[in-house]
Amino acid sequence: MSANLINLLIDATWQTLYMVAVSAALGTVFGLPLGVFLATSQRGELLSRPLINKVLGLVVNAARSVPFIILVVAIIPFTRMVAGTSIGTTAAIVPLTIAAVPFIARLIENAIREVDSGLIEAARAMGATPLQIIRKVLIPEALPSITLGLTLAVVSLIGYSAMVGAVGGEGLGDLGIRYGYQRFMPEVMAIVVVILIVLVQLVQTIGEWFAARVDKRAPKGRGQ
Amino acid sequence: MSDRKIQGASIVFQSVGKAFAKPGGGMVSAVDDVSLTVDAGAITGIIGRSGAGKSTMLRMVNGLERPTSGKILVGGQDVGAAQGTALRAIRRDVGMVFQHFNLLASRTVAGNIALPLEVAGVPGARIKARVADLIHRVGLDAQADRYPAELSGGQKQRVGIARALATEPKVLLSDEATSALDPETTQTVLELLKDINRELGLTILLITHEMAVVRDIASHVAVIEGGRIVEAGKTYDVFTAPQHPTTRSFLSGLTGVTLPAFIKGKISDTRPARPCDEVIHVTFAGKHATDPMLALLTRDLGLQVNILSGAIEEIGDQPFGNLLISLDADRAAEARAYLERHGLLTQGLGYVG
Ligand SMILES: Nc1ncnc2c1ncn2[C@@H]1O[C@H](COP(=O)(O)OP(=O)(O)OP(=O)(O)O)[C@@H](O)[C@H]1O
Ligand SMILES: [Mg+2]
């Protein structure tokens, strides 16, 4: 294999990592508060804003039902507005983030809902404010699930990032299509697939390791 | 121990009612026109069956539920009317322990106990000192850095109690704190609550469905049934002279009041024609509790008395006893009059023969 090709693979790997890392980070920045709000704003709950909860829930569902490749194309004007261009790796971060936010929000919402309501009750009995309950009880208690949820989100983003070649985003997926498919170099396609498998395995392993570290519940089995 | 003695607060329920909206529409009444005064510095038990409204009553004391009618005053402050910051300030004065502990799995013992102090905005250095004190008080020095998953039920409840005491409350609420514990651990946790009450002087209001818990630590008791208080008073008085059938049925679970199986099968309410014995429940109380009454009965009336079951117990530091005896039905009235004259309570349960 030529040195040129190896350089291309290295560059593409970095581009993928860059897109996934930035969109996952931005997705968490926006998805975490959204998820916490969705989990705590139904009627009678901590923040009880049933109307806003309904509306946000609908928006999240709508965003999640659009296939990613269509989302990428549909929001091109918005991407241009935010990133200054609608073409390239940095521009690709915009649709990736927009796909990540509702996905991560739902994962966080589920993680927060799993927290035993007795803990909220105990915190209320202490005189905690809703914000204190979220910061000191809900998020720390949900952290093992949140970590696993974010791991899943990153793995999905690696998959999505392969599709952004359609709007000139680069990265491993784009390289695989251009060389492996269009230029008929199946070995490039094979290497790209292997790198993607290794990346996903790595993310999964690191995610699970973190989740286990922050999980202080019963060490073996999840009986209780 | 740096705990200063605090003045416990009284809790007053004034015609308190609480109704919940039913999912299908309409209301279900959980607590109905309850008036009760819980003395400052005392340990008061509320006993009732499942669904009687115990938890609802307790949860109104720290504003976790709001009454739909009436008022609840804690140390003179109207909890039901308090909102926001004022309500949170009241809650810091009222600690609560739970049946299922409700500890944060993500925090160590020390971290759990620190939480109410963090919530109250106490500076870090003071939190550390206070937490160390509390851990010592509940006897968990060796477990300070353990996580709840590594503790036994009794140890978890000690953490729960320490956490409830962190903000130096004037009232401690306990919702079935010992119901998830084995009998031995229950005793040690009750002892801890008793010590805390004695040393710190705070008011303890606990709910339970076990008369033994009331007997062991409560100086006052209220019996709740269907959302209403059916009987209330000093534990000793309620135990020795229960008025309401619900109270009696709770008491029948205690030793000395249950008919042994061999009698239960044979006893009848109506007196048979043939010679027979009457079964009598005798309650010893007050200064006569330890008198040798049966010996005197035999000596003065020349009666033969069969003992079926019995026990002497202590409430606070006063002894009281329950005894089931049987004796010749022809002379039962005479024997009961004799015992009553000597300050005992008697109740005819039926005939065997
Ligand atoms: N949040 C609620 N919504 C609707 N009904 C409720 C609610 N909380 C309690 N109830 C009802 O009020 C009644 C009293 O409940 P409560 O929990 O106070 O009983 P309890 O005496 O504590 O029972 P247990 O011993 O089972 O804990 C029950 O009929 C219960 O179904
Ligand atoms: Mg209850």
Supply database-style keywords.
heterodimer, A: 224 residues, mainly alpha, B: alpha/beta, Alpha-Beta Plaits, 6-stranded mixed β-sheet, 4-stranded antiparallel β-sheet, 12 helices, 14 strands, binds adenosine-5'-triphosphate, binds magnesium ion
Describe the protein's architecture and organization.
The complex is a heterodimer of chains A (224) and B (353). With 224 residues, chain A is mainly α. Chain A has a single domain (3-214), classed as MetI-like (MetI-like fold, Orthogonal Bundle). Chain A has helices at residues 3-40, 50-65, 68-74, 76-83, 89-113, 117-126, 130-161, 172-182, 186-214. In chain A, helix 1 (3-40) packs across helix 8 (172-182) and helix 8 (172-182) packs antiparallel against helix 9 (186-214). Chain B is of the alpha/beta class. Chain B folds into 2 domains: 11-244, 3-Layer(aba) Sandwich (Rossmann fold), CATH 3.40.50.300; 261-352, ACT domain (Alpha-Beta Plaits, 2-Layer Sandwich), CATH 3.30.70.260. Chain B has 12 helices and 14 strands. Chain B has a 6-stranded mixed beta sheet, with helices on both faces. In chain B, strand 7, helix 6 (183-200) and strand 8 form a beta-alpha-beta unit. The N and C termini of chain B lie far apart (63 Å). Magnesium ion is lined by residues 54-55 of chain B. Adenosine-5'-triphosphate binds next to strand 2 and helix 1 of chain B. Chain A: The chain crosses the membrane at residues 17-39, 51-76, 82-105, 142-168, 188-212. Chain A: It is a multi-pass membrane protein. Chain A: Keywords: Cell membrane, Membrane, Transmembrane, Transmembrane helix, Transport. Chain A: It is found in: Cell membrane. Chain A: It comes from Pseudooceanicola spongiae.
Please describe the topology of this protein.
The complex is a heterodimer of chains A (224) and B (353).
Chain A: H1 3-40, H2 50-65, H3 68-74, H4 76-83, H5 89-113, H6 117-126, H7 130-161, H8 172-182, H9 186-214
Helix pairs in contact in A: 1-5, 1-7, 1-8, 2-5, 4-5, 5-7, 6-7, 7-9, 8-9
Chain B: E1 11-21, E2 27-38, E3 43-48, H1 54-61, E4 69-74, E5 77-78, H2 84-92, E6 94-98, H3 109-119, H4 124-137, H5 153-165, E7 171-175, H6 183-200, E8 203-208, H7 211-217, E9 220-225, E10 228-234, H8 235-240, H9 245-251, H10 261-264, E11 277-284, H11 293-301, E12 306-315, E13 318-328, H12 332-341, E14 345-352
Helix pairs in contact in B: 3-4, 3-5, 4-5, 5-6
The structure holds adenosine-5'-triphosphate and magnesium ion.
